[in-house]
Amino acid sequence: MSITELGRTAPSSGTEPAVLAEGLVKAFGDHRAVDGIDLEIRPGEIFGVLGPNGAGKTTMLRMLATLLAIDAGRAEIFGVDVAGRPHVIRQLIGVTGQYASVDEQLTARENLRLFARLQRIPAPSARRIAADLLGRFGLEEAADKPIAHFSGGMRRRLDLAASLITRPPLIFLDEPTTGLDPRTRGQMWDTIRGLITDGCTVLLTTQYLDEADQLADRIAVIDHGRKVAEGTPDELKTMVGASTLQLMLAEPGEVPAAVEAVRRGLGSEPVLSPEKGRLNVALDQADMAADVLIALRTAGISISSVSVAKPSLDEVFLALTGHETETEETR
Ligand SMILES: Nc1ncnc2c1ncn2[C@@H]1O[C@H](COP(=O)(O)OP(=O)(O)OP(=O)(O)O)[C@@H](O)[C@H]1O
Ligand SMILES: [Mg+2]
Question: Is the CB of 28 under 6 A from ligand 1?
Fold first, then answer.
């Protein structure tokens, strides 16, 4: 039996949003980790929450997953009130990370069967579901090895598999690929896309613009517990240009002259970096870099280094908030 055959049932007609949040707040002491966030996630989409360390991503997910009390505002999942009916909510969502305490001595197959049995699924079904999930997640070969020998990527996949046992219509993935190598990240992306084909809705958090770009239909960018932008990946990228020209001037004092030259030459506004002498210019097309360089040379401004890069999360942030992404440590 495949997951598809079993089907996924949301309690509603399917016209309600998968997630609807209004003014969500979570405060730890006098620090508002989540400071009034609104979200509307449509059934069947992959919705990405993008933000740097400490932005409030995990805190927001934990509130939606009933693992943390909501201090202010409200949330509904498929029309069910999160604070009012937590037991129903828990049947509607799969949360990865929730099963972090898998038994190291048991094999992957035994772990999945155990979880299924703990969900009161009868043994024959539990066996079938475990086999099905192991196949889908590329864990067949390793299925009968104790998970103590599993790599980080295999553990992540097993964790996701475990969260799908009850076939929840909504899956929360908290930074599903942080720390994975590029190949394993790619596999995880395919797995996540597969969830959608299967009829799920996915809410995922990430620190990586490329990941949100690859996976998400829509993205909310959050910073200091607030939403600073929302849109499709393309909409967000056009806010910062399709690519970015990163310039380091030989003479940091020439920054104002360089800004003026770029304005005149390209009609766009460079973004100044806090680093002295560095500025970034958003480009709609990578080959516009030449126009900028010509404009600078005409103005007699010399450059010590230059590169063209895809916009990074840092640039999206700098463009949207006027400050760079900062981590807990640098704050
Ligand atoms: N249980 C807690 N008690 C006190 N402060 C907390 C608690 N959980 C989170 N915080 C604080 O709330 C803020 C948001 O944390 P959160 O874990 O939600 O960020 P995040 O966006 O998930 O970051 P990361 O990318 O590092 O996972 C941080 O300043 C964090 O220190
Ligand atoms: Mg987090």
Answer: yes
Strand pairing category for 46-50 and 218-223: parallel
CATH number of residue 250's parent domain: 3.30.70.100
- Distance between CA atoms of 6 and 53, rounded to whole angstroms? 38
pTM, two decimal places = 0.78
- How many domains does the chain contain in total? 2
Structure tokens at 82: 């999160």
Residue 224 shares a structural domain with residue 306: no
Tell me: do 143 and 13 sit in the same domain. yes
List the chain pLDDT tens, one digit each, 331 residues: 333 333 455 554 557 999 999 999 999 999 999 999 999 999 999 999 998 889 999 999 999 999 999 999 999 999 999 999 999 999 999 887 644 556 788 999 999 999 899 888 999 999 999 999 998 888 889 999 998 888 888 888 888 888 888 889 999 999 988 878 888 888 889 889 988 988 899 999 998 888 898 899 999 999 999 999 999 988 887 777 778 899 999 999 999 999 999 998 888 888 888 788 999 888 888 788 899 999 999 999 999 999 988 776 667 777 777 666 654 444 4
189 and 43 together in one domain: yes
Pocket test for ligand 1, best of 59, 61, 209 (most atoms within 8 A of CB): 59
Distance 49 CA to ligand 2 centre (A): 11
Domain of residue 39 covers 3-236
Q: Beta-carbon neighbour count of residue 18 at 10 Å?
A: 27
